[in-house]
Specification:
The protein is of the alpha/beta class and 455 residues long. The protein has helices at 10-13, 16-35, 39-52, 177-180, 184-187, 207-218, 253-268, 298-308, 315-323, 375-387, 409-414, 438-453, and strands at residues 56-57, 69-74, 78-83, 93-99, 104-115, 118-126, 139-146, 152-157, 196-198, 228-234, 239-241, 247-250, 275-281, 326-329, 333-334, 356-359, 363-364, 392-394, 404-405, 418-423, 425-427, 434-437. Strands 1-2-3-13-4-14-20-16-18 form a nine-stranded mixed β-sheet, with helices on both faces. A six-stranded antiparallel β-sheet has the order 8-7-10-5-6-9. The mean pLDDT is 96. InterPro entries: Peptidase_M18, Peptidase_M18_dom2. It is an enzyme of class 3 (hydrolase).
Length: 455
């Protein structure tokens, strides 16, 4: 099979057996999507699958040998898995870095508000999204609430068929003349993204009745919202798309399509000479900040812990390890959409259904903020994919002056690693519901597995 082919889709190149493997993989990926609905739930599911595959917490180890499987849980919102190789760790790692946070709405610290006897939740959007897309959708409320005594309440409302859902109103077109005259970015403001929470009340006010319901049914006091992490996402599970079922619709493909491929790859890859590391990071959508984002020290700390268990305690060993490491920044890229052709440069855009996408650079206008991978490393990754017959293509994020974006690649390049962006191309990125091709999702798994197993 030709690995790099701009004329024939992956489906056309695959044998019947490979098509069957792709469909099986897609079923498992959809199960992951419908379980790992937030970064906390993704963390939990990744650790569950890792433990079933023999991974143990790093704290359980007093030394490391080839074949050991370890994991690091970073505050319940990021995870690192590693399979120790036969080479000393300082000779470099094979790292695939993905992220498990997604664009969404976050509930504010004091969210419950009443207007004309209608109660709403106030929200703050998380990550780059188009606010007008979040109105008139069934929405779930998922997350954790910590009470004053330190006890935890897990919240999941809207996920089961019999649950109520939340809903954000829009203005009816009969009265929308002034709204229609505004730019899309101004038609719905951030403060207007207030889901309906209830209308039933007694007397002058409705809010007290809703607060009573929250206390009686969920054990939540109004003050408890100040120590909560509650996310609002579409109350819609994944679905096959197209009469041929060639695509998958879901919330959170960015970046769980790469995260699941990363997980499946490290669980299936044969241990090799190099230590294999799968990173599942938080906070990428808001700049990789905080102590669960990649700008934090926890990833280098994890590597330092591995080195210490092999008797390499001095910081120079950490620096050498990172300098000798190779990274695939596993994040999605934009696939050419002919409906919006003016935003793309077609010849250098990825296409839906043509394999995993290598992006030499991201950034914006003049490559600002980009890693811009070295040609030598691009050549090595090409060679790995071609030898293993991994379907791949190249792409970039739209026309030069159109916009842009970024991934964690530049952060890991700052550590001295060789890095290239390598992710699944998709349509409707950052929308409440996004589209990927099954062939591309499966190609991501094949790509990361081949990389882990390479020398």
């Amino acid at each position: 099979m030709k690995a790099f082919d701009t004329e024939n889709s992956v489906w056309a190149r695959f044998s019947p057996e490979q098509r069957g493997q792709m469909e099986t993989y897609s079923v498992h990926y959809r199960q992951f999507l419908d379980t790992a609905r937030t970064e906390r739930l993704a963390n939990k599911e990744i650790i569950r699958q890792a433990e079933n595959a023999g991974f143990r917490p790093l704290a359980d180890f007093t030394s490391l040998k080839a074949g050991d499987k370890v994991y690091w849980d970073q505050k319940g919102k990021s995870v690192i898995l590693a399979v120790i190789g036969s080479d000393p760790i300082e000779k470099g790692l094979k790292i695939v870095g993905s992220h498990i946070d997604c664009p969404r709405l976050d509930v504010k610290a004091m969210p419950v508000v009443e207007k004309n006897k209608i109660v709403y939740f106030k929200t703050h959007y998380y990550g780059g999204l188009l606010k007008y897309q979040w109105v008139c959708l069934p929405l779930s409320l998922i997350g954790v609430v910590y009470k004053a005594d330190g006890s935890r309440i897990d919240v999941s409302i809207g996920e089961d068929q019999g649950d109520p859902v939340l809903f954000i109103n829009d203005l009816l077109p009969h009265l929308g003349k002034d709204q229609a005259a505004k730019k899309l970015s101004e038609a719905i403001s951030g403060e207007m993204l207030m889901p309906l929470a209830g209308t039933n009340g007694e007397g002058e006010k409705t809010k007290p009745a809703i607060l009573t319901l929250l206390k009686d049914k969920y054990g939540i006091e109004e003050e408890d919202f100040t120590s909560a992490e509650l996310e609002i996402i579409p109350a819609v599970k994944s679905r096959d798309v197209g009469l041929d079922r060639s695509m998958i619709m879901s919330h959170g493909h960015d970046d769980r399509v790469c995260s699941y491929a990363n997980l499946a790859a490290i669980l299936d890859a044969e241990p090799g000479e190099k230590t294999q590391v799968a990173l599942f990071a938080d906070k990428e959508e808001i700049g990789s900040v905080g102590n669960t984002g990649v700008h934090s020290s926890y990833f280098p700390d994890f590597i330092a812990e591995l080195l210490s268990l092999q008797g390499r305690d001095q910081e120079i060993w950490l620096r050498r390890t990172l300098r000798n490491s190779e990274v695939l920044s596993a994040d999605v890229c934009a696939a050419f959409d002919p409906v919006f052709a003016d935003a793309y440069e077609e010849q250098n855009s990825a296409k839906l259904g043509y394999g995993i996408c290598l992006c030499k650079y991201t950034g914006a206008r003049g490559k600002a903020g980009s890693n811009d991978a070295n040609a030598e490393f691009m050549a090595k990754i090409r060679r790995i994919f071609n030898e293993k017959e991994v379907p791949w293509q190249v792409g970039e994020l739209g026309k030069v002056d159109q916009g842009g974006g970024g991934t964690i690649a530049y952060i890991m390049a700052d550590w001295g690693c060789d890095v290239v962006d390598c992710g699944v191309a998709m349509h409707s990125m950052h929308a409440p519901l996004e589209i990927v091709a099954k062939a591309d999702a499966y190609s991501g798994y094949l790509a990361y597995k081949a990389f882990f197993e390479s020398k």
